[in-house]
Amino acid sequence: MFSLSIPAASDLAKFQKFLILGGGSSGDSSAKLLSSQGKICILADKFPEKANRILYAEVLSDNHPQKILEGIDCIIKSPGILPNHPILEEAKERRLPILSEICLGRIFYKGPIIGITGTDGKSTTTALTYHILKSKFPNSRMGGNIGVAFTSFCLEPLDLVVLELSSYQLDDSPNLELTASAILNLASDHLERHKTMESYAKAKWKIQNLKNPDHTAFVNPIFFHFLPKEMSENTNLHLIGENQKYYVSLDPNQVHTPNHIYDVSRFPLKGKHNLMNLCFSIALAETMGMDKEEIQNQFESFQGLPHRFNRMDNSGFQNKYQEIQFINDSKSTNIHSMLSGISGFKKGEGLFLILGGIPKLEPIDLFLKRWKELECPLWVYGKAIEVWKNEFDTTGLPVSYFPDLPSVVQDLKNKIDFKLDTNKGRKILPLSVIFSPAGASFDLYKNFEERGNHFESLIKEEFS
């Protein structure tokens, strides 16, 4: 297995027959890249009937490791495949090289790369960093965990690449030799795979390349609560957070770096967590040689990502509903992400919160504490009911349970209508309906995008 460094293209040239373990976007993209180089690709997948067979010389079920590995020179592993998969165990016995899709792309792409990871906010920060940098580097691309496989564009002669990197992708990769890196935060997530927070943190820490004096790493100091021995005096390691040289201030809203103070009052995304994301993006942009005016002009035009705390356009809704703020945060798949989104709300500010999906293996205590502070009505749907109901019911706070999202939205509308009808003639505080599931989407939806689109269509149907 290649484990310490990126193999050379000459190493890869020695291999002719590749096993793509796990299809999907990263596996299929790897197959396209390798096929363009004259290589033979075999797919092993849990659901071979769903494979894009045009890309592969052969498609097999992943049930028979010994048979599958006959004649294979190298394995390309998809990030969702567990490290103890029988095919990988057998490959290690045979001393077959195993590469991640990201590592495969890095063999071909030799230009500068910015890598961004963290428990929450990495997609927004990746898109924001790319948005800022593309004014200086118009011939650049964004990809990785954000949805565009690195191997789909690694052959292009680009000036710069910005990659969102998950803990799974990093765990499967050697040192990616990045130009600059960022670890935004760290909270309980993916423990069903990593088992411990220390193991999770070690996977994230692989993003840095501090042995190279030309590499610059930006890290939230919270990270070192979980991996304190990695904290160093390296001059290329910079902390972003309170009481650091890179930090966010509120009232007025500003981002501070050692070089400049940025007025961020016109940044379209609200909340301190979004200003922290912006602080990381600004730090990365400064590292790549952008000046203050260029950076300021770019971030003010950033509009955010779909399904990430996006405020819906309610101009077409009935008049009585046009004061209500509907927010689609379907990309929230864990409690930490959901808590970041609602961090700016206070008790009595008219917050209605919707949770659901498949909860991650993470403690619920922080949410219970926050919910008791807000005392807001809560709706819960889907698989989450089985996991959270007992603890939610002990709080004595207003909570309703429904099997699916349509029944949630119908009950929500009834509650809002009742509140509006009983307050006729009197001004009421603005209402905010936040759909921030805090769980994975796979109980009822293919992905968070489908879930978010369904939420928006239901809201438009009921309130227009």
The number of helical elements comes to 16
Indicate the radius of gyration in whole angstroms.
Answer: 24 Å
Structural class: alpha/beta
Number of strands: 20
Overall pLDDT score: 92
Low-confidence stretches: none
Tell me the quaternary state: single chain
The first-to-last residue Cα distance is: 57 Å
- Helical amount among residues, as a percent range? 25-40%
Strand order of the biggest β-sheet: 7-8-6-9-10-11
The coarse silhouette is globular
Q: How much of the residues is beta strand, in percent?
A: 15-25%
Largest sheet, in brief, is: 6 strands, parallel
Model description:
The chain is α/β, with parallel strands linked by helices and 464 residues long. The protein contains 16 helices and 20 strands. It has helices at residues 9-13, 24-36, 65-68, 86-93, 101-108, 122-133, 167-171, 191-194, 197-205, 272-287, 292-299, 335-341, 365-374, 384-393, 405-422, 448-463; strands at residues 17-21, 40-45, 58-61, 74-77, 98-100, 113-117, 140-144, 160-164, 180-183, 216-219, 237-239, 247-249, 254-256, 261-263, 310-311, 325-328, 351-356, 378-381, 399-402, 432-435. The strands form four sheets. A six-stranded parallel beta sheet has the order 7-8-6-9-10-11, with helices on one face. Helix 2 links the parallel strand 1 and strand 2. Helix 6 packs across helix 10 (272-287), helix 6 packs across helix 11 (292-299) and helix 15 (405-422) packs parallel to helix 16 (448-463). The longest helix is centred in the C-terminal third of the chain and has 18 residues, at 405-422. The model has no long low-confidence stretch (mean pLDDT 92).
